[in-house]
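Troubleshooting: if your tokenizer reports a length mismatch, compare your output against this known-good record of 163 residues.
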Amino acid sequence: MLKNVANAVLFQIGWLTCVMGGNSLWLLLALAVLVIHLRWVSSWAAEGRLVLSIVIVGTALDSVLRALGVFEFSDESPLIPLWLMLLWALLATTLRHCLQWSARPWWLASALGAVGGALSYYAGGRLAGVQFPYGEWPTLIGIGVLWALVFPLLHAMARRLAR
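Known-good structure output:
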């Protein structure tokens, strides 16, 4: 129980650091949060493959959305910014810990993904200065629908990579 609370607190610290700090030295704090999780809450041996897999999937997903014009960042890279990649790594740390309760039944993960995903992108977009060229509401509704599908799949990845 204490490790789940620590995981939730670490994730929130990391999320805020990534979103507020962007691609700055503040990312070192977010990276430290990830290291603390892997040293105290879990381990690289237990979750390394999950973290790397989620970062790859998340980077691909958000980079496609970026290429489709759903997000607009200040840089010109075809990939999402480093801070957002690190955010995917931090999200991966929650799947077997503080958010494990949302894995089953699948519709619970779907509902949490729809609401939490849209709210996270909304707040993150506001704080990080990310633009939504198709408009805020259409983008957030689309993200909510997408995350209703993605979050159960992330939980499935966490289960599969635990074996």
